[in-house]
Amino acid sequence: MFLIIDGVEGGTMRHPLVVSLILLMFAAGGSQAITEARRVPPPSVAIAVAPAPGSVRARPDRHVRVTAAKGTLTSVRVSVGGVRVPGRFDRARRAWRSSWTLVPGASYVVSAAASPVRPGDRPAALVATFHTRPAPRAFGVQEAVPSPGETVGVGMPIILTFTTPVRHRAAVERALEVRASRTPHYSSPGLDDDVPGLRPDADGDVPGATAPAGRRVEGAWRWLGESQVVYRPRALWPARRRVTLTAHLAGVHAAPRTYGTADHTLRFSIGRRQTSVVNTRTHQMRVLRDGRLVQRMAISAGKGSTREYTTTSGVHLTMDKGDPVRMVSPGRHKGQPGYYDRMIDHAVRISNSGEYVHALGNVWAQGRINVSHGCVNARPDQAKWFFDHSLRGDPVTVTGTDRPLEWWNGWGFWQLPWPQWRQGSALHPPSPRAG
Length: 435
Fold this sequence. Notes:
CATH class of the largest domain: Mainly Beta
Strand content: 25-35%
Shape: elongated
Oligomer: single chain
Low-confidence stretches: 1-37, 188-214
Radius of gyration: 33 Å
Structural class: mainly beta
Distance between the termini: 91 Å
Number of helices: 3
Number of strands: 32
CATH architecture of the largest domain: Sandwich
Number of domains: 4
Helix content: under 10%
């Protein structure tokens, strides 16, 4: 018996027709009619993947893209090393794109399914693999501030120092994601200190919108050099929030032949909202906790006889503290006028130009006259209280002198108005009319 289909004789078919050759053929001891050939249409949906399936040297600074022609994507799953890759569909579900760039020197698996637009047409499915090229030179985070798990003040910046100079700053900035929790947290150690009865409302007491859970914080990065970038929110952080920075650096092309090889995650907490105001003319310092006055301190500030001995006015942040701290007069040697070398107790640093809030026994001057070399000194017991209750990143605003704090002096970043701060970002360059 021979089967002839479109002139092809024998048992070999070279035609894109699928034939129902046998319907109960020879069943029950007899032959039955062979049904006529029927065309089974191919899927009307075509799924495409980039990088191309089978690639062995795909560029890591690209995204995975999955598209469906004449249909809608019903599912997309991309994984690397068994870990799912995050991504998003477009509104029409005709395309899917990975959120971040790719890990160099890694294998990816893509599975996707799509349904046709017209009812009755066949759906489509695809499974593909590709491999990214390795990084000639690696790039990553060398140091991050604050420390992992640290509880900090509401003015705290995020400071990242990279392992190599960054040429493509915009690409790096786009990979830096900052998120904060919506609701306050009261159970973390160090958030509330020992002031009873202080609880902000659900939205905190900081001007500006609170960042919803899982959403980005409104803020901007500013580059301080080739390998360091600083993040500052538009307004002070809401109190008692948890913050997560994710640097999605894997695959980021930071400089010629230089790629990020891994992501970096930093988690820390924002503590209670403590702010201080130092008035060098009235010689008083007021400390507020969540909007309530919790400490009033008589102080003595810089005597102002020289620029060096003038306390800087502006928004400072507490940077670190020591008990004691050795303070030596800059640029002077022993025996010269103005020379000093002393160990100072309960010292909280507020700038890089040698300014501290610290303890000193010159109670006769505190509250009356400014006699220091530029620091703010207070009665030893009150200075100890301030030392014990300070977190890195607490704002300390000094008023009353003619020497302004430079925005680059220590963590004086809040000295810059928001539009000026954003001009230091590679993603928010100054407009042609600016400046």
